[in-house]
């Protein structure tokens, strides 16, 4: 099983960034949903218990709730998280990884690095 069978959610309040990441993943065969808000994703997960992506890609700095807070709220349900951000603060990276993030990629990132971090589809 490889990334071509994965379902990934992208949460980024910059629409151009979310679209670019989604295009990259879709070109690799990944099924993608995008959200402009961490709160919107959290509401969807609460409203629909069957909605479970294999991975959530988060930006650190967002307008409603930051990616690190979204990660904290996702921890109880065990969704893997990956950060892609321009936010270059060592404390944010350390916190994200300490809380179990699959990775913390800085923009611009290498496509192959991102694809290597996408987990396979969960059974």
TrEMBL record:
Residue ranges annotated for the Response regulatory domain, each copy included: 7-122
SUPFAM superfamilies (UniProt xref): CheY-like (SSF52172)
SMART domains documented for this protein: REC
Listed Pfam families: Response_reg
GO biological process: regulation of DNA-templated transcription
Sorted UniProt keywords: DNA-binding, Phosphoprotein, Transcription, Transcription regulation, Two-component regulatory system
GO MF annotations, alphabetized: phosphorelay response regulator activity; transcription cis-regulatory region binding
Residues with 4-aspartylphosphate modification: 59
GO CC terms in record: cytosol; protein-DNA complex
Entry-linked Gene3D superfamilies: 3.40.50.2300
The name this protein goes by in its record: Response regulator
